[in-house]
Amino acid sequence: MSNDRPTQEEVLRRAVARAHRAPSVHNTQPWIWELRDDSLELFADPDRMVSVADPSGRQMVISCGAALHHAQIALSELGYDTTVARFPDTDDAFHLATLTVRPVTFPDQRNRTLAEAVATRRSDRRPLGPLSHDEIQTLVSSLPSDAVSASVLSEDGGELVREASELAVRERAGDDRYHRELHWWSGHYRLFEGVPRSALPPLAKRGSVPSGREFPAGTLEPARDVPDQANLLVLSTPGDTALDWLRCGEAMSALLLTAAVTRLGACPITHVTELEDSRALVREATEQAGETLRFPQVIIRAGERLVPGLPPETGRRPVEEILRVRVTGTR
Ligand SMILES: Cc1cc2nc3c(=O)[nH]c(=O)nc-3n(C[C@H](O)[C@H](O)[C@H](O)COP(=O)(O)O)c2cc1C
Q: Which atom of ligand 1 is nearest to the CA of 199?
């Protein structure tokens, strides 16, 4: 009699392939997974850090947090419960998590739905329509833990974010290193990494989403020429440590996948939290919304898609480049 159940190693490999679809800053994919005999390990890859925009590695760790959440829901869909130890090695700051798994009889239906949405989630930089009250509630309640909160900005808060965005653009204007780094990672046709031109709006349409990062010009047509009416949700944490960043990435992943399940458009925005002056304006916006957590990390712009169809899928490096296998007993 044949046993069709995949081995644990096969299951972990499938989960890594799913997790590789996670969003990451400039599509840098700054993660390395290591398969061990009885665990799956997640490491940040500092060689893929955007060191001008993100000198502390905050966005690198947030990106890895998103991959960590993607892996957990993928494992759940495959019929496994996951236990996660975050920062398991005090001597290695890049060792972000150890995942151990055990089979379950009844996979979690919610996670299964989220896992299916991995394939249709995209960063959508087109103008979007406003969310309904219920849609906002669904997104806010998707966060997996109290370690991260989502504040929904009012119109005044949105105005502060636009000010923050203009301030960040002004402060970066003479920063050649920032612009060189941004152009290295975006606006071209590389297949496996970076933000392709096809995912970015053309220059003439950039103004229609005033809170967005100014990437090089692209070819993504908004299809309907309307002003952006998306809602802004700010993810904040109580501290600004690597653990806060990792948790923030996990929460961001849950929120973005929930948006994908409900066929909403969504995109992370971080140029406004990279520099202290603009981050202070974002903090002011969250305080206006009643937020008590002090550290805004990522803004999620979310709204109704105004045209059918998804933005194009962005590329990923081959899984062999981000997955290594450590066999016990070998050197
Ligand atoms: C930590 C983080 C920061 C990001 N910052 C921005 C940003 O400021 N502006 C933007 O348009 N997209 C931003 N993104 C989205 C990435 O560019 C996007 O995830 C990546 O290009 C892969 O594309 P995909 O999300 O469609 O798979 C960010 C994503 C992450 C995880």
A: 26
**What is the distance between the alpha carbons of residues 55 and 252, in angstroms, rounded to a whole number?**
21
* 128-305 belongs to CATH 3.20.20.70: no
All CATH 3.40.109.10 domain ranges in the chain, comma separated: 8-121+314-325, 128-305
Return the CATH number of the domain spanning residue range 8-121+314-325.
Answer: 3.40.109.10
Q: What is the pLDDT of residues 209-260, one digit of tens each?
A: 889 999 999 999 876 678 899 999 999 999 999 999 999 999 999 999 999 9
DSSP code of residue 196 = E
CA–CA gap between residue 60 and residue 26 (Å, rounded): 10
Residue 65 has pLDDT above 60, yes or no: yes
What is the SS3 assignment for 173? coil
Among the atoms of ligand 1, which is closest to the Cα of residue 271? 8
**Cα(331)–Cα(328) distance, rounded to whole angstroms?**
8
Q: Which residues pair with 85 in a beta bridge?
A: 98
pTM of the full structure: 0.97
Residue 26 CA to ligand 1 center (angstroms) comes to: 6
